[in-house]
Design brief:
By secondary structure, the chain is α/β, with parallel strands linked by helices. The model has no long low-confidence stretch (mean pLDDT 95). α1 crosses α3 and α4 crosses α5. The chain contains eleven helices and eight strands.
Amino acid sequence: MSSYKFECLNVDISPEGVARVEINRPQALNAFNTQTWTEIGQCFTRFKTDGDVRSVVLSASGRMFTAGLDLKEAMTGPLGKPRDPDTDAARKGYYHRLFILDFQEAISAVELCDKPVVVVVQGGCLGIGIDLISACDMRIATDDAYFIVKEVDIGMAADIGTLQRLPKIVGNDSWVREVCYTARRVSPKEALAVGLVSSVHATTAEAMRAASDIAKAIAAKSPVAIVSTKHLLNYSRDHSVREGLEYTALWNTFAHNSHDMATAIVSSLKRQPALYPKL
């Protein structure tokens, strides 16, 4: 079984292939410092090629999913401290752009990981938290959850994925612009109504059980079918219908060579659970 050890994340993989990832900085309300987002990128990049992982449940410890960016570090790190006070704006900008791109890639690793990710949000989900959950496949909330696209309140536009992914998740451009421009608080009831989350539960324990049930159901399917489905859904979201169909035809010319299809058909005819080898 694969082993993952991080400073800001707790990672465990069940025998069924469900990876449970917990953001673990409760003393800082799970605010994202550089170590946190770097480890998320490393973790989900490894998941992509880890055959022991078939699905993922992402959560956070403590009373809040995340307070957003760790502002104390931001004021002394790449966001708040120039590399050299005598360096001109073009050179400062060049390296600042690379820093933002690294941050984006770390969060995008969740989306690019072909293993489906179910995220559980309890308490506040602010700023970078919206970037992160937008990169997940499914979002589940608790009754005490709330969501804020917070970046305008610290004088910037969200730049790690919210403005790109949220409109495609919700499908209501007017609503997305409202919450991004005003940084207002969104309740779990409203999040459910607009399609940001798929269900709301009374407690974190109930939400975790619901997420685990989904992840276990996914893990029991053919891993070839699951990674193919996620990959093709993401591709088709970002391309025309015609392009999506043509790419799917190309993808399945090799994916259809899996033994999993025969296993699934035989198991269905025998009315028995199918057992698939890991990816």
